[in-house]
Amino acid sequence: MTEQLPIFPLGMVAFPGMTVPLHIFEERYRAMVRHLLTIDDPARRRFGIVAIREGYETGGHEARSMYRIGCVVQLGTVSQYDDGRFDLAAVGQERMRVMGTDASGPFLVADVEVMPEETRPSVDTAREAAHALATFADYRDLVSELRGDDVMTGSLPRDPELLSYVLASTCSLTLRERQQLLESPTTHERLGLLRRLMRREIGAMNAIPSLPATEVARSGWSPN
Fold it and tell me: Which of 32, 45, 116, 221 is 20 to 30 A away from residue 77, measured at CA?
């Protein structure tokens, strides 16, 4: 079953369970936020975040340049400036597939289909989660050593699915790699891919002792 949602194309990948802070200044996305705030039920204030393919800029051709799989997010806290800009936090809920877009209105909307997580036997997934945690511990220790400070010291979730999304949003990865993780059909496959990517980064950092190419901690505002 499909539903129609406002769509926010961004140069980032959003994941279920993760909080996405946004600074809204373009008029079309201000209009999107104003529309969402007219919905009485906060649980229905939902929109989709879809990554823009690398090499493209946000602009008039977003529908053609964005990936087809993104994340449904729920609008959370909102602060409005006197000039109409917004700071907001949105929380990822579930993956979605864009079936068709409509750019005729004040902001982009799309018919989307929710993508439920396909499951594997829990024992296999739990084992893969344990392997991913062990690899992440090595990755974190090496990054901390290179930075001269403890990083990524917070507790990690025990649920394998949520763990896979936390690691995907925390580790130093390219946009394309994050998108590949989002599109992984099962938690088991996502955790396996994460392990391979982390081992690659560990090997690269051991060969060239410098920080990964992108920031490890994904925090701060993501401007539209």
Answer: 116
